[in-house]
Amino acid sequence: MYEAGCEPDELAFHDALIAGAAFAADPARAGGMVVHAVAGPHREAWLQYVLSLLPIGSPVRRIPVHINDERLLGGLDLAATLAAGRPVAGRGLLQETDGGVIVIPSAERLTSSLASRIATAMDLGAVALQRDGFDESSPTRFGVIAFDEGQSAEERPPSVLLDRAALHITLPHVKIEKIAIDRFTRERVAEAAKETAAVILDDGALKLLCEMASLLGVWSINALIQGAHISRVLSALDGRDRVSEEDVATTARLVVAPRATRYPDAPADTPPPESATSEQQPEETSETKDDAGNIHDTVIAASRAALPAHLLELLLSGDHRKASKSRSGKSGAKTKSPRRGRPVGVKSGLLGEGARLNIVETLRAAAPWQSLRRREMADQNGAASLNRITIKAGDFRLWRLKAHGETVTVFVVDASGSTAVQRLGEAKGAVELLLSECYIRRDHAALIAFSGRGSELLLPPTRSLTRAKRNLADLPGGGGTPLASGIDAAVALCDAVKRKGQMPSVVLLTDGRANLNRHGKPGRGRAHDDAVLAAEMLRDMGVPSLVIDTSAKPNAPAERLADAMGARYLPLPHANADTLSKAVKAEVSRSAAP
């Protein structure tokens, strides 16, 4: 199905064109396509090509990630209801797309609730496809084109959409003029749609598809059902009445390989994912191993070539399960706010301080009761007012808002004499690296230093990387180690940060050898006890913390301090730039977790 002499990106784009044609043949039965691509001319050209293959008049709608349920699913038509004095239903966007396609830009930003609503509508439409005599009262049928603009393996569309989309492709940046995008026509796709049901998928081709799924660790029966359908469509598009090995290889690239949970060269006895039940796991026998070894090289090569780069790295490192369960974007997580933030819905309630009234939804709630209320007024007053809209307290609808929580990373640096000049320089370098990470994540950063007889807030919470680096460079060293004073300053600052609705985390760089107590008086025993008490206060506040040991080699005082603080302990001699970065990211994620 490829032209000779094509570059890898051109071959991938050809695959995207084939996938688009297979989808356009029957969008509702294919379920959908997940297209990993950033916005640009190449993506728009591909989308217009796919839409041009749909039957004339097929509705196409774009769904923004912030759409509300009323617009998506339909509901009360406010204008018609107020005019008629009785509830009048309105059509939702999904109903308007019956028989067509919905396009979802930035699908990785969909909330799980919105994705579930779309997936439920897709399931109802799929069930309706099996019935005879589909009529106007039947569920809506549509296909989905979801653009995944995520930059990492963790930034992915919700799993309910990934599972229902038959086709998963990556759209490379290529020069459009180098690609022949007129391979398929609307007429050819329409003929293939009619011929698909008659295409034969024999036992050999089906077994080959199942073996490939097993080799890649794909245990979803849904993937196999979708793969069988796509194989038939591909055969019909090429004018054949029987699925060939080439069709299975293409299906492996477009349907099976993107769902892989292990590399094709992995041992046959690699266990399936934890989510698979014992009933779903095939019993391993010598015959199973022999079958896996008999899979045609072309199919294996096609599947291996289709593994996305980030997925391949995860599979080879063995971290794919951990990554699939983690959640990205914890920094700046959304929190409920009564006064500010992005609207995420409405709720019933009474007007109070900070509450924001949603006038349209209030009218919508009151509209169905107007006829009854007019009659009540007529009974009470002897005449009805036809032009008055009566609103009661129970009709009030208030905005539900969510604001992005701001994260503040508080760096507490030991600048005392026990931290040698060389070690202080290394600590400054570590803090500068961590400050840069905070700047990239658009977090706030604060800097506290302690030495001599007390601590000092050198930098209040800020996003200014230049100011933070300048204050850090001017940090002098020497004097005693008032460790308790430094932690007390961090406790006070974290409390102030929390009062502002922000989420603090603490990074403490010290050797843990305190020699001055809270009042600046010498004495290692009392100084250590005060430091432990201060650390326990920080732990009781629930502030995620990280203790970086700046001594020449790991030592017990810093590790005991980390235990008292409930913090992660990280010796600086064993920590490189990447380790420090990952450690602070982990603590920031803990601070932003709901």
What are the defining features of this structure?
single chain; 594 residues; alpha/beta; Rossmann fold; 4 domains; 24 helices; 16 strands; 45% helix; 15% strand; flat; disordered N terminus
Q: What is the fold's blueprint, element by element?
A:
Blueprint (H helix, E strand, L loop, with lengths): L7 H18 L1 H4 L1 E5 L4 H12 L7 E3 L6 H5 L1 E2 L1 H7 L4 E2 L2 H4 L3 E5 L7 H18 L12 E7 L10 H6 L2 E4 L15 H10 L7 H13 L5 H17 L7 H12 L29 H8 L3 H10 L2 H9 L2 H6 L8 E4 L4 E7 L10 H8 L3 H12 L15 E8 L2 E8 L6 H20 L3 E8 L2 E9 L2 H9 L9 H17 L3 E8 L13 H17 L4 E5 L6 H10 L2 E4 L5 H16 L2
Parallel strand pairs: 1-6, 1-7, 2-5, 5-6, 11-12, 11-14, 14-15, 15-16
Antiparallel strand pairs: 3-4, 8-10, 9-10, 12-13
Helix pairs in contact: 1-3, 1-9, 1-11, 9-11, 10-11, 10-12, 11-12, 12-14, 19-20, 19-24, 21-22, 22-23
